[in-house]
Amino acid sequence: MDFVFNEDQEALASSVKRFLMTEMTPELIRELWTTPTGRSERMWDMFASQGLTAVSVPENFAGLGLGDVEWALLAQTYGYFAGPEPLLDTALVAVGMLEGLPASGQRDALLRDIAAGSARVAIAHPVNPYVSDAHVAKVLLCERGGELHWLTPDACRLNPVESIDPSRRLFEIDWQATPHTRVATVSEAQPLLARALDRGAFAVAAQLLGLTQRVLDVAIDYSAQRKQFGKPIGSYQALKHLLADVAIRYEFARPVVYRAACAIADNDPQRALYVSHAKLAATAAAQLAARHAMQVHGAIGYTWELDLQIFMKRIWALSGSWGDTTFHKARVADALIESCAPIGPARTFELES
Amino acid sequence: MKLDYTPAQRAFRADIRSWLALHVPREPLPSFDTEAGFAAHREWERTLHSGRWSMVTWPRELGGRGCDLIEWLIFEEEYWRADAPMRVNQNGIFLLGPTLMDFGTDEQKARFLPAMAAGEHVWAQGWSEPNAGSDMAAIRASAIRTDEGKGGEYILNGQKIWSTRAVWADWLFGLFRSDPQSTRHHGLTFLMVPLATPGITVRPIRQLNGHTGFAEIFFDDVRVPVENRLAGEGMGWQVAMATAGFERGLMLRSPARFQRTAEALRALYLAHREQADRDPTLRERVISAWMDAQAYALSTYATASRLQKGGHIGAESSTNKVFWSELDLRMHQTALDILGAHAEVVPQTHEQHAALGNWLDGFLFAQAGPIYAGTNEIQRNIVAERMLGMPRS
User: Fold this and answer.
1) Spatial CA neighbour of B191 closest among B144, B148, B149, B147
2) Nearest chain B alpha carbon to A275
3) What SS3 class is residue B154?
4) pTM for this prediction
5) Which residues pair with B205 in a beta bridge?
6) Cα separation values, B379 from A75, B142, B316, Å
């Protein structure tokens, strides 16, 4: 029993952190808001050169062959810097789906392209009403009627939907399902879609953890600089307690997200319960963080000018992504109330036995 | 990350599980805040000790099993799973014990630890005073050094209050001002005092639940040998801070306790589901109870894993204390809301006990959680200042 990351995992995350700190600046994020695609080929190339796009790709397709546990820290770091690119959907969720498909020329080539940084993938999953980043995807993996279809951009008509988060690019898509587009039947697609959902929700949960830490850091800094009544506002107990409450929620969300990472990696029988718990815990921490960070800032927190909006809006947007709160609460309730999963002491890790 | 128990850990779990199945009293013991209950709980500590289960993390020569923190968590899980009696000596074994390991001389360890593990010495704490509550550095009870007696003595005067279990305990540990010129956290000394010493008057205080769970203690020229001092004279604050770290940290409230409550809460909800579902928030609160108890358990496993690798417990002891005490309140309030109009009934008959369980008792006890071991307001200040680096007021 060892519930901590190893040195390699920590080292990988801190090298990515150093890279993102330099490159993924609020200035760049704002600049990308105003471009037609909102995406940056230069940034995606840099992800590839850092190995980020290759993390989950198996080694025989020129990937790093790492897994969900590594992503727990990486996605958290990516969230901290509010990366707008579909890195998690492509390099974690889509790679997982592709690995579940039978080997074929187009599948193997796409895995190599992802690792090399020459392909983004969009996923039309029934849990998400909109498809994120369909406009920059080389391939779209789309569910219809329980089947999984493989589509190229020219086979889809995209209708953009505006998100409160200007970094998010969402679409409704029109497309025709044909026997030629189908890559998995209902029974073949079912486990792939279920796993994709859990990976997607876990990836969002980890990003929300990073975002929680970010808005907390921003609020702490501001509370030390801003003076009222002749003292830094951060010296007042009322503000301390707002941020302490965020720190406490964050501390107790983190291990839940790490548990979910292991549950996905180990294909734990209670994977769905652990992932939904993680998404709920991270969402609750992040939403509290956004609210209290805004409160600490006062009126300046309500401006377009302040970078706080980048992180708050990402929190609000991701809260409903890859399964909203009602979806995940219902899954937890199914496991705990309807299926009466055995719980209690001595069942921290083994809800089955 | 390796979320699997080793064969040795599984064997350890099987051992303690079968021992508890044989030894845990079939009927719950009376409250240890009553005279008969205190005696019964002390007897239980002796039984635990006879199986070498009273303090599993301690070295063998001190009556323990030399277990690591993961094994300690396994022990706690099995202990709460078996609904075994509360630990009447928790002040001693969970708080003073680890402090003695860190600061005690070999003689002190040999003198106090085995007797503590055996339930022979039950300990009370002496921190708070009428004018030193959250502001513990305002302590005034004095301990003045004299050269009288063999090896010197301290003469104690003053008053301690809110001293849990002091009514029937054998010993007290706490902080006294040894330098009359000193202020705040300077000039304090950590002493261990037999409660039977002449000059000590223990006055029970009746608690909210009617029992005398705590007491006030008056010291009137009480003589304590210098050998009962833990660490150096004037070092008391540092020792006390270490003890407080243990208290708020891992040892005092293991996650298993709250996992057990969350499990019982779900059972209560399922038994009353038809009525409970008239308020749809109740199901949500029952689910949240499991999620939060599970989060606390996972967090504790993460901390234990980190400590195993040589880390130290820091401000997370404060985040823990706020989290579990407020979770405990929420769970018990939820239970009472499920019981509805029956919730106020203090069970007397066998039928009432069966129908109502211990929820009311637990609810009353949970009220104290955000207050003892440093109020949650103080804990939030600690989190903000030490963990987040916010400026001091």
Assistant:
1) B144
2) B291
3) strand
4) 0.96
5) B214
6) 30, 27, 10
**A103, A43 Cβ separation under 8 angstroms:** no
Mean pLDDT, residues B25-38: 93
The rounded distance, in Å, linking the Cα atoms of A12 and A17 is: 9
CB B116 within 8 A of CB B123: yes
Give chain A's count of helices (H) and strands (E).
12, 9
CA separation, residue A18 to residues A81, A203, A288, A307, B345 (Å): 11, 20, 27, 20, 60
Residues sharing a CB contact under 8 Å with residue A314, sequence separation 6 or more, in sequence order:
A79, A82, A165, A167, A207, A211
List the single residue in A1, A240, A251 with the smallest CB-CB distance to B384: A240
Amino acid at the residue B296 = Y
CB contact at 8 A, A237 and A243: no
Q: Which of B269, B294, B383 sits opposite A244 (nearest CB)?
A: B383
pLDDT, tens digit, for every residue of B219-228?
999 999 999 9
Give, to the nearest 10 degrees, the angle between helix B359-368 and helix B316-339: 150
What's the CA angle centered on A201, arms A196 and A206, to 5 degrees?
A: 125
How far, CA to CA in Å, does B351 sit from each of B100, B266, B356, B358? 46, 21, 8, 13
d(CA B296, CA B195): 36
In a 3-state reduction of DSSP, which class is residue A147?
A: strand
A34 CB contacts (<8 Å, ≥6 apart)? none
Radius of gyration of chain B (CA): 22
- What digits encode the pLDDT tens for the residues B107-151? 999 999 999 999 999 999 999 999 999 999 999 999 999 998 889
Residue B284 known to be catalytic: no
- Of all residues in chain A, the one with the smallest CA distance to B390 is A234
